[in-house]
Amino acid sequence: MTRFGDFQPLCSHTPSYPWCNLFYRQLQHHSPLTLLGASANASAAPVGVNPECGTLRVGSGGSLGNIANIVACGLSIVFVAGLVWLCNRRKAAVGRVELRLFLIAYLFTLPLQLVTTGAFLTQGTTAITVLTAIHAGAVAAVFWTLLGNAIVATQVVEDGTLSSLIPFSFLTLAFFAATTYISLDVGFTFTSAFGPSNPPASLHSIPLFVLTSIWPPVAALLYFAIMGYIVVIILRETRPMWFYILSGILFVLSQLDYFLLNKVICNGSSAKVDGSFVATLLETAAVGVLYLAWKSITEESWDEDVYYPR
């Protein structure tokens, strides 16, 4: 029976789910007999734990690994780097520093995602476990920076100042450090606080589940709610709201693709590719539209006294 905090359904039914790398290491050292099927041979095992479908590791049987998502991550890296450059050029725009930090944080996750889902490294190794833990920390931090941008947009504190950047940066580092530590403990089982899972096959970790599966959508929902209030109630504008709605739709579609169509694409391609590349492109498109939304609400033609009260 599945409990809250069990990763077993995700690791079996969702190809290229990166946090499963942590549990593979845990099972390999504590319950190796539970690694069955494609996961039994670590040198060729795809991302996942006993996955129903998954791309084999690069070079195993001529496999190119998760090649489609590797390409998608590469294109996204170039695109987001361009957004960082464009953001930096808007010197007078409100929230420029905080948005740039969000874009840089998201950019940081992309090469990590490329490695942790690309089937480059052998499952169970120290390298892939550590990189996956860092990836998990980076994702948790990204969604704080997203929510932090919404809080800054309310002008509770003045953007770009120490009163904004110190708590913004502190919480970013706190989310990153806490999630990375918990992830490392899940993978290496340093202590009994976060592992090993009991029973082993359930792949159970409530803290990791909350930080990687619950916190991101909650932060995204709060972000869109706050920005919707600012745009519709305070600014009384409609055009920027359409950008936020489109960005939200793209984000939801990326999650639906990842958790519903991912395995369908994997089975349909005989495990040559899976649907993670579509999710990556949709997520990056959502970030791009967020940039357009931010750009539209920082236009100099608007009455700044309404939006930035003194």
UniProtKB/TrEMBL annotation:
Domain of life where this protein originates: Eukaryota
Record's protein name: Uncharacterized protein
